[in-house]
Amino acid sequence: MDERKRDSMIAYLRHRMEDFGISPDALAATLAAEPAAGRYRSAHGESWSGEGVMPQWLKQALSAGQSIGHFELSSGAAAAPSPHARAAAGADWTNDPFAGSPLARSNSR
């Protein structure tokens, strides 16, 4: 990623954090927290270990054409939603480019 794109992404993330009242310290604490069990995670915080029956949310996403790799967590990237993310549960994440990624940690069920 070139430096201009990187700077643009950082500005976007800072703006979104301000919109939802997330401080850099809260984000760092959440990322440093003990990882939750699970190999796959949805944008809504639902997770699945990859063992046993596949959950309905993942079946629906795969049926809609999404790749299972889209939901796969990298080692150490899984973290429980922060209290700030839970407070923003009413947020509309449908147009968020990070939905389904480790950057999206909203539990907006």
Automatic annotation (TrEMBL):
Pfam families: Histone_HNS. It comes from the Bacteria. GO terms for molecular function: DNA binding. InterPro entries: H-NS_C_dom (IPR027444), H-NS_C_dom_sf (IPR037150). The keyword Transcription regulation does not apply. The keyword Cell membrane does not apply. Keywords: DNA-binding. Residues 75-109 are annotated as: Disordered. Residues 75-91 have a biased composition (Low complexity). This is DNA-binding protein H-NS. It comes from Paraburkholderia bryophila.
